[in-house]
Amino acid sequence: QVQLVESGGGLVQAGGSLRLSCVASRRTIAGRGMGWFRQTPGKEREFVATINWNGAITDYSDSVVGRITITRDNAENTLYLQMNSLKPEDTAVYYCAARNSFSSTIETTQIGYDYWGQGTQVTVSS
After folding, report:
1. Which among 20, 23, 21, 30 has a CA at the least distance from the CA of 75?
2. How far is CA 7 from the centre of its chain?
């Protein structure tokens, strides 16, 4: 069982930046594909970014490409999401997710993930 805890969310003005972190405990994230998703009230959780086991392969939602970067530090058991040029439409609860230990590749669908954090709120004011 992988326990994931996100942090780094908050209130920022449009055009600003935030860096989200997701620290894993109980099990290592090494060897696992990881991802970030987000959700706003009344909407389905949507894909934001994904990264393979060693960080060599990433993929992003069209709505964030060029503004958001996913990275990982396996030695620190931590996943990151650097968000720049933030827009009000980026406002959401952001969740990190981990695949099981046999799934090292990227994945853009929720069903491909086995472990989820509790989420961190990001609010972008206009």
Report:
1. 30
2. 11
